[in-house]
Design goal:
single chain, Rossmann fold, eight-stranded mixed beta sheet, 17% strand, alpha/beta
């Protein structure tokens, strides 16, 4: 297959590209500059531009691009960047895919479990409605921006991603150094559920989605058994052989992170109903195994 990837230099995009190339697939990287090598296609989501000639012949388009949710405090300006980087990018690719004489057979769009808001202790699958808050409204508009592809008959999938367990980047990449230095601990009261997924399983799930024609619409990418933050803390201590003595009080987190602290403290007990129903098998379903896989 020929697969075009936006966000190919990020944590997940890099791992997905490596996996696809290892199996002989052609990977086209969408870049925000003039191409410097074969296999690169220029795009600029801010200008809603993509070189459609470079997309031609793609069997699949994958959009993993977007500003990092936890990279900065949520000022009004950064919240606008979070929205624009996702909504404009997705709309640009959806329009471009729909305009091709021979469109790709699938548009795989990144999304997030933030769609559901705070689910508390409630087990939540893809049938749940959107929740409240900034991230939930962002995810709703993010997914809606792919409508041109859906209307053109392109199979469109929204990969609602949980917390990816990896040491190379993302939120978990920041946790590993803290726990290794014996500075890790529960966040708030630690009772909030974290829906996690090993990086290996995330990439495998994306490839499963690309290959499984029956899957369209939202698909939760998270391990089958979410765990609480207390359980994550205990697992990190076990696997790393480190004590976990330093809890982070909720007021201190709010002082440090501002509005984003609310999303760190909220509980999301989300399960991958559609992924499991489609026959996907997790290699690292448990939290200890996911942490070991990230280290190994």
């Amino acid at each position: 297959m020929r697969i075009a990837i936006a966000g190919a230099s990020g944590l997940i995009g890099t791992a997905l590209g490596q996996s696809l190339r290892a199996d002989g697939h052609e990977v086209v990287r969408l870049v925000r500059r003039p191409p410097r090598a074969s296999g690169e296609v220029e795009w600029d989501p801010a200008r809603e531009y993509v070189d459609t000639a470079g997309l031609a012949g793609s069997d699949a388009v994958v959009n993993l691009a977007g500003a990092g949710v936890g990279d900065h405090r949520w000022t009004d300006a950064y919240k606008k960047e979070l929205r624009d980087s996702r909504i404009l990018g997705t709309a640009t690719l959806a329009d471009a895919a729909a305009s091709l004489d021979v469109p790709p057979r699938v548009l795989l769009c990144g999304s997030a479990l933030g769609f559901y808001g705070d689910t508390g202790d409630r087990v939540t699958d893809e049938s749940a409605p959107p929740g409240d808050g900034f991230l939930a409204s962002l995810c709703v508009d993010w997914e809606e921006s792919a409508r041109p592809a859906e209307e053109a008959g392109i199979r469109t999938v929204f990969a609602r991603t949980g917390l990816v367990v990896a040491k190379e980047g993302g939120a978990w990449g920041r946790l590993f150094p803290l726990f290794k230095a014996c500075l890790g601990g529960r966040i708030g009261d630690g009772r909030q559920y974290w829906s996690f997924i090993a990086l290996h399983d995330h990439v495998a799930a994306l490839r499963h989605i690309l290959d499984t024609d029956a899957l369209s619409g939202p698909v939760n990418l998270t391990a089958p058994e979410p765990v609480t933050n207390r359980e994550v803390t205990a697992a990190m201590g076990r696997v790393l052989h480190r004590p976990t003595p330093f809890p982070v009080p909720a007021p201190a987190l709010r002082l440090a992170l501002g509005e984003f602290a609310g999303d760190v403290l909220m509980s999301q007990r989300v399960v991958p109903g559609r992924l499991l129903d489609s026959g996907f098998t997790f290699a690292f379903p448990g939290i200890d195994d996911a942490i070991r896989a990230a280290l190994g």
